[in-house]
């Protein structure tokens, strides 16, 4: 993108009061610069790193390394052997809310899972007994399955159904439900990619409505005292803070959890504690994240995997038992 569109300029004025901040935000989108590559170690890190590693941020988990510019981790033989998964550092930021969830965790359900970054992050940091990764778009299933297989994410199961079905069939069952929601993908521009129409109000409203439907269905899958993690890789408030406000009005049993390690990233666009990373922070292309807790007391429902396999397309990476 050579010149900022009026819609991008308008968005920058909504996001930042300060003129310099507006300008630098727009500049990072119209003249993108590369970000440091990043990896998540699925297996134990070798003592001597095969890569040149950047100084970690204070909140960065030990199983993440941000690498020097120019490193190509995807081409290293350890990648094929499943030692690590390559992801954007914005994904680490967004998923870092999960680091605050107390163990033990039985069941993690990832509603929007392909290609698998948040599923693998949750598996690594929470060590659940079972991870269920759902991807509704058939042609995205292959990459999800191959990533979970390559990284040996046991025990995990891949499913492919609309979120409505899970709300009906496995209500109040999961300790954690992750909603890394489909969005307008505005942050792709900061990576030099394309996201046609991503600032257009029609596209933003359509996306926000889909996000509200997914988060509402996902909330019903969360067990009492369980967690719901919502995140996007886009900047517009309609897809982020406004989804959170809408959600809390309709599901008052949920409250947003303060994430102390992300305090300096707290969004000033709402009173709900939620967090944003912007591309001008130079860590990643940008993300929005919030962690909700279901404050209801009560019994968690069991998920009978045998019964489910009759109705769902379950592709078992390993064979789970009842949760
Ligand atoms: C931001 S991506 C997920 C990235 C993934 N969580 C990761 O970390 O690798 C959003 C995903 O939501 C999926 N999706 C699209 N429409 C959906 C819907 N109606 N319900 C659930 N997921 C949907 C997309 O196919 C896409 O894979």
UniProtKB/TrEMBL annotation:
The active site is at residue 233. InterPro entries: MeTrfase_RsmB-F_NOP2_cat, MeTrfase_RsmB-F_NOP2_dom, RCMT, SAM-dependent_MTases_sf. S-adenosyl-L-methionine binds at residues 112-118, 135, 162, 180. The keyword tRNA processing does not apply. Belongs to the class I-like SAM-binding methyltransferase superfamily. RsmB/NOP family. The keyword Cell inner membrane does not apply. Signal peptide: none annotated. One of its GO terms (biological process) is RNA methylation. This is RsmB/NOP family class I SAM-dependent RNA methyltransferase. Pfam families: Methyltr_RsmB-F.
């Amino acid at each position: 993108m050579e010149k900022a569109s009026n819609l991008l300029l308008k968005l920058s004025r909504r996001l930042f009061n300060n003129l310099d901040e507006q300008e630098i935000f727009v500049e990072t989108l119209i003249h993108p610069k590369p970000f440091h590559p990043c990896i998540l170690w699925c297996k134990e890190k070798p003592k001597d790193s095969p890569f040149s590693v950047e100084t970690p941020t204070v909140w960065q988990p030990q199983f993440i390394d941000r690498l020097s510019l120019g490193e190509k981790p995807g081409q290293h033989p350890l990648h094929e052997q499943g030692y690590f998964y390559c992801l954007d550092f914005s994904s680490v930021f967004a998923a870092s809310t999960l680091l605050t969830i107390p163990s033990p965790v039985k069941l993690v359900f990832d509603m929007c899972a392909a290609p698998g970054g948040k599923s693998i992050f949750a598996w690594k940091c929470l060590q659940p007994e079972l991870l269920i990764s759902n991807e509704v778009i058939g042609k995205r299933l292959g990459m999800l399955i191959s990533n979970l297989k390559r990284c040996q994410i046991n025990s995990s199961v891949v499913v492919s159904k609309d979120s409505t079905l899970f709300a009906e069939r496995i209500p109040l069952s999961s300790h954690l439900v992750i909603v890394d929601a489909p969005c307008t993908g505005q942050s792709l521009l900061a990576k030099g990619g394309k996201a046609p129409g991503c600032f257009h109000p029609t596209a933003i409203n359509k996306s926000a409505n889909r996000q509200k439907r997914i988060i509402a269905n996902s909330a019903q899958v969360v067990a009492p005292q369980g967690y719901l993690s919502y995140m996007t890789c886009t900047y517009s408030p309609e897809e982020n803070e406004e989804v959170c406000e809408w959600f809390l009005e309709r599901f008052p049993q949920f409250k947003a959890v303060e994430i102390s390690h992300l305090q300096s990233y707290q969004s000033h666009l709402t009173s709900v504690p939620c967090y944003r990373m912007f591309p001008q922070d130079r860590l990643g292309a940008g993300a929005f994240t919030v962690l909700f807790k279901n404050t209801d007391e009560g019994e968690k429902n069991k998920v009978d995997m045998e019964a489910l396999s009759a109705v769902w397309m379950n592709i078992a990476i390993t064979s789970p038992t009842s949760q």
